[in-house]
Amino acid sequence: MTDTSTAPVISARDLSLTFQTNDGPVHALKDVSLDISRGEFVSFIGPSGCGKTTFLRVIADLEQPTSGTITVNGMSPEAARRARAYGYVFQAAGLYPWRTIAGNIKLPLEIMGYSSTEQQSRVEKALELVELSGFARKFPWQLSGGMQQRASIARALAFDADILLMDEPFGALDEIVRDRLNEQLLELWARTEKTIGFVTHSIPEAVYLSTKIVVMSPRPGRITDIIDSPLPRIRPLDIRDSPEFIEIAQRVREGLRAGHLDD
Ligand SMILES: Nc1ncnc2c1ncn2[C@@H]1O[C@H](COP(=O)(O)OP(=O)(O)OP(=O)(O)O)[C@@H](O)[C@H]1O
Question: Domain ABC transporter spans what residues (predicted)?
Fold first, then answer.
């Protein structure tokens, strides 16, 4: 039997994706090669248009690569999607205002045909993970922006998939709320041992959260640096003042600058 415990959860080799547009081809991804191991927290950082979202969408089988290969849990992205290998969190919480928080989290479970008892227990567990247990019967508009985003994370967690793909989930929130959500996300990651792919524009956020930071650059969208973080997995917020943190942030900044110089 093959040992799958050490095999990468996501493995991309020479992955390229070119969109054909009226203005000519757009090279959203070029020769991207990356391995993500089980339980890693991987951030994708880079300027607008460097292909961060496109890469997440390829993992999720929402876009097809033009060339190269990618596997998710050892399968094609299509097979992984059918096996419900991941949950996806978007930048906007995208909750239906006429449904309660529990109703929003339940919706995909209803569509997938889970029994109502199963739906109920999954909703309770997901709400507990994002510390929203008392808010099941509230409507989205009764919650703050940060709480709405936590509810959308709960919706993605309700499938109990091993992989969580998050596309700039906290980008629209103020810094204090974002700090708190970053802390909560790390706690959640430690409790659930999920593999997380996280898109961000923020250097401190990427360094604080990640075990691996993937620095990207546009035209064509490509990886310019991959940084394996030496920081411990348990991180208080004030780790951001430590010399190790500042050094990694500096390397990310240099990677971003180098990508710009190539333009
Ligand atoms: N469906 C599409 N059709 C044509 N071009 C596209 C499509 N989706 C993305 N692109 C282009 O591909 C490039 C990469 O886009 P992508 O959204 O992946 O970048 P990003 O790094 O996530 O940017 P941002 O930080 O602004 O979200 C951009 O130039 C974008 O305009």
Answer: 10-239
